[in-house]
Write a structure and sequence with these properties.
The protein is mostly helical. Helices cover 58% and strands 2% of the residues. The protein has one domain. It has a two-stranded antiparallel ribbon with strand order 1-2.
Length: 472
């Protein structure tokens, strides 16, 4: 069984299925202020921290690293390295390193991650945007946002992505040199950026939010009222999220191949998923405007109290989506009618995304209200880990190519080494920035600055994770 991965743009295929393979709760408050009314803007200005939200963001960032670290051992990845990087296929941008040792069953983890984690990152990214806009104004907020997200995007696309993909070039036949790599890279016609695709899309969504705030400052009042019901009625909120997700994704999966990544220069995005990502970003805006402690992400809400139910539901819906996908693949291979399995497979992705996202929020709300030192450190460094991890992952995988180990052992070593090294590099970068008398860029007063999961934090998210383009 092959679960597609949103980590990177695979080659478009006219017969490809529409399903690509690929914090939240808050501080309890029994005396929370009343819900915003339709006559007053619901934009909070508080910069209070939410430990469970930080913990969820950190765990999502770790999942992005895990996702990319095991792709070299995916049992259904490309069969062999490309003859040339500019040979027409960009599959190598999702699988920079291909190890002959495989890890049977790891495709289920890759698929489960890919079904939800990038959309949830966009939701988390939107949570503190209303407070930032209300506090700083759209112009100042967007300028700070452009610095916080734009500079890491340029660094990641211009330097870190070629460094990561040089390992793919070294697996092509023939002799190798920097000049040879540049010749093939410059002939691509595009510039694969890796997981930092998330940052430019997040910046674009932020620009839309700033524009809407300037034109109609109270536009979030009604959406905030809708999502506020989720505190005591999580099933209604789940129906809203799932139903809107279906409307955002299913038509797009028919209009454009769900496996295709649109691109212009270094700006990559999985076209069929773009409306779905924006929907989750807007959901994050609405939840933030309503007040995190007053919505479905509340630690004392019914969602968190029934975390086990939501976790089981997430697994059930995911395996149902996988079954629909497998049915479509089998039907297509046997040249049987595919209309029904195609529709069910397309339907399964947004439904699984909604169930898994809500389950992740429920678990974080139930168990991460007092994160330990390790989780706090991971949260502080989450954004930098997301930005720097991809070349580290690629070169760890490349270093393990000749190791006489099985796929599972290599995969576990790749995960441990990649996460550990990325963490160390991120901590060093953040420590240097913290002690620099001229730290680059304006600093936001919001403790949740854009991160790997998109929340706003002084510690520098996100790619299928993110996904990478090659987030996760």
């Amino acid at each position: 069984m092959t679960l597609p991965t949103s980590s990177t743009p695979p080659l478009p295929s006219s017969s490809a299925p529409p399903l690509p393979t690929s914090s939240t709760p808050p501080l309890p408050s029994s005396s929370a202020p009343p819900l915003p009314s339709s006559s007053a803007p619901p934009l909070p200005t508080s910069s209070a921290r939410f430990p469970a939200l930080d913990a969820l963001r950190a765990c999502l960032t770790a999942l992005v690293v895990v996702h990319h670290a095991v792709l070299a051992y995916h049992p259904h990845g490309p069969k062999a390295p490309p003859a040339r990087l500019d040979g027409g296929s960009l599959a190598w941008s999702a699988f920079p390193v291909l190890d002959p040792a495989k890890w049977p069953g790891i495709d289920l983890l890759v698929g489960f991650n890919d079904y939800f984690f990038m959309s949830l990152m966009f939701l988390i990214s939107g949570l503190f945007v209303p407070a930032g806009l209300a506090r700083s104004g759209p112009g100042a907020w967007l300028r700070a946002r452009a610095w916080r997200l734009g500079l890491p995007f340029v660094l990641g696309a211009a330097l870190l992505a070629p460094l990561a993909y040089f390992s793919a070039y070294l697996q092509t036949p023939g002799t190798h040199s920097l000049a040879g790599f540049w010749a093939q890279w410059s002939a691509l016609g595009v510039w694969p950026a890796g997981p930092v695709w998330f940052l430019w899309v997040l910046l674009a969504f932020g620009a839309v939010a700033a524009l809407l705030h300037r034109i109609a400052p109270n536009w979030l009042v009604v959406p905030a009222l809708w999502v506020s019901m989720g505190r005591e009625h999580p099933w209604r909120f789940a129906a809203l999220v799932a139903g809107a997700g279906v409307l955002a994704y299913v038509p797009m999966s028919y209009l454009t191949n769900a496996m295709v990544w649109g691109s212009f220069g270094p700006f990559f995005v999985q076209t069929a998923r773009l409306p779905h990502y924006f929907l989750y970003f807007v959901l994050g805006l609405a939840l933030g405007a309503a007040g995190i402690e007053r919505g479905p992400l509340a630690a004392d809400g019914r969602l968190a109290r029934r975390w086990l139910l939501w976790s089981n539901l997430a697994l059930t819906v995911f395996f149902a989506a996988v079954a629909a996908f497998v049915w479509f693949i089998v039907a297509a291979g046997q040249k049987a009618p595919t209309a029904l399995p195609l529709f069910l497979a397309s339907l399964g992705w947004p439904l699984s995304c909604a169930a898994s996202s809500l389950a992740a929020c429920a678990v974080a709300g139930r168990f991460a209200q007092r994160p330990g030192a390790i989780l706090r450190s991971l949260s502080r460094n989450a954004f930098a880990i997301y930005v720097v991890h991809y070349p580290i992952v690629s070169w760890v995988q490349y270093a393990l190519l000749d190791a006489p180990l099985s796929g599972p052992w290599k995969g576990m070593l790749a995960v441990s080494a990649s996460l550990g090294l990325s963490w160390l590099v991120a901590a060093a970068v953040n420590m240097r920035s913290a002690h620099s008398p001229n730290a680059a860029g304006p600093q936001s007063s919001n403790p949740h600055s854009p991160s790997a999961a998109g929340s706003q934090s002084s510690s520098p998210h996100s790619p299928n994770a993110a996904g990478s383009q090659g987030v996760g």
